[in-house]
């Protein structure tokens, strides 16, 4: 009887059903954002990482920058600078006649300019992205990234143009220079202000501002490609308590940096009549404008259009592509080095702050 009563009670009052198991985590989506490495709240960390990346890039590739600068001012007319056949011949000639010091001419302002430029660029870029977020957690659109990068590039160009002008002039100095050579960065700055005035420090600012579009496209491409890499890898490897950045390594960052640079070149390809106008023509104009005046104090070129007319007259279309080989040899590795160092320095900051 007791057993029958228990069965009857069990039928009247069955035990509560077990709760269903929790649903599996949803697959990663392209709209998910991470909050560590590229977080807009990390403005100062971004600036510090960018500064370190800028220093590393210059330290590794400065000789190619010297060669590029020498090629870009070589207009085929009599000059104190030797004539170079190609990039290899230029490196050999400079090393033989000027030594290692010649290959690293203008290194101090280049380091200063690159360190300050990249530090400020990432700082302004983070600030702009934070402003566009407006408290939302959604991923920023490519248009927001493009606007943020363009804004950062314009501000950095206005701030650092004097540094790049001094760097260009120091790189163009040779033992046969017709004027009293600059003793260094500070001496060059004082001499330019004394002999040419404050406005001389902003020669070439116009072409420099036009180049902002190229950098903006590069950063937008990097953001989108990076998001795609994280999306693909996170589908393959499910990690717990680990941000998406843990899925990427230095090889990935190098690939992303070079790919984004190449994407910027290809996307600006039809932008002007000249196929590589953004990458080649504008640096040529800017570099030639930043040359030191003659011993009589007369600038070789008056403005950008004067550079274009003189170059077309004496060299033709070929003149606008001076330094293209050394420029391309420098740009793709430089983009890879910059982003590899930047991302890894941010990882160090993240570990130091105890973030998983």
UniProtKB/TrEMBL annotation:
Organism: Ananas comosus
Protein name (database record): Folate transporter 1, chloroplastic
InterPro entries: MCP_dom_sf (IPR023395), MCP_transmembrane (IPR018108), SLC25A32-like (IPR044712)
Membrane-traversing stretches: 103-125, 145-166
Matches recorded under SUPFAM superfamilies: Formin homology 2 domain (FH2 domain) (SSF101447), Mitochondrial carrier (SSF103506)
Membrane-topology annotation of the record: Multi-pass membrane protein
Family membership noted in the UniProt record: Belongs to the mitochondrial carrier (TC 2.A.29) family.
Residue stretches of each Solcar repeat: 41-131, 140-228, 259-348
Domain of life: Eukaryota
Compartments, as annotated in UniProt: Membrane
Region (Disordered): 9-34
């Amino acid at each position: 009887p007791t057993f029958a009563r228990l069965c009857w009670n069990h039928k009247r009052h069955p035990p509560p059903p077990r709760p269903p198991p929790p649903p599996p985590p949803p697959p990663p989506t392209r709209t998910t954002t991470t909050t560590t490495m590229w977080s807009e709240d990390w403005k100062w960390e971004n600036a510090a990482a960018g500064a370190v990346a800028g220093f590393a890039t210059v330290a590794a590739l400065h000789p190619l920058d010297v060669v590029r600068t020498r090629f870009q001012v070589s207009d085929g007319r009599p000059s104190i600078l030797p004539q170079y056949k190609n990039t290899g011949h230029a490196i050999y000639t400079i090393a033989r006649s000027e030594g290692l010091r010649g290959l690293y001419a203008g290194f101090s302002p280049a380091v200063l300019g690159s360190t300050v430029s990249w530090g400020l660029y990432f700082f302004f870029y983070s600030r702009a992205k934070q402003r566009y977020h407006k408290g939302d957690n959604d991923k920023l659109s490519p248009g927001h990234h493009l606007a943020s990068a363009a804004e950062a590039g314009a501000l950095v160009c206005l701030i650092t143009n004097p540094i790049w002008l001094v760097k260009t002039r120091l790189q163009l100095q040779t033992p046969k220079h017709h004027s009293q050579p600059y003793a260094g960065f500070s001496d060059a700055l004082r001499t330019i202000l004394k002999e040419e005035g404050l406005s001389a420090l902003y020669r070439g600012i116009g072409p420099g501002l036009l180049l902002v579009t190229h950098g903006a496209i590069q950063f937008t491409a990097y953001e989108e490609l990076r998001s795609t890499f994280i999306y693909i890898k996170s589908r393959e490897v499910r990690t717990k308590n680990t941000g998406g950045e843990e899925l990427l390594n230095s090889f990935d960052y190098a690939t992303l940096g070079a790919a984004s640079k190449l994407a910027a070149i290809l996307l600006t390809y039809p932008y002007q009549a000249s196929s590589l106008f953004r990458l080649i023509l504008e640096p040529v104009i800017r570099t030639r404008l930043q040359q030191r005046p003659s011993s009589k104090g007369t600038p070789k070129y008056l403005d950008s259009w004067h550079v274009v007319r003189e170059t077309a007259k004496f060299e033709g279309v070929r003149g606008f592509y001076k330094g293209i080989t050394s420029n391309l040899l420098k740009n793709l590795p430089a983009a890879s080095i910059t982003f590899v160092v930047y991302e890894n320095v941010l990882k160090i900051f993240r570990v130091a702050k105890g973030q998983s």
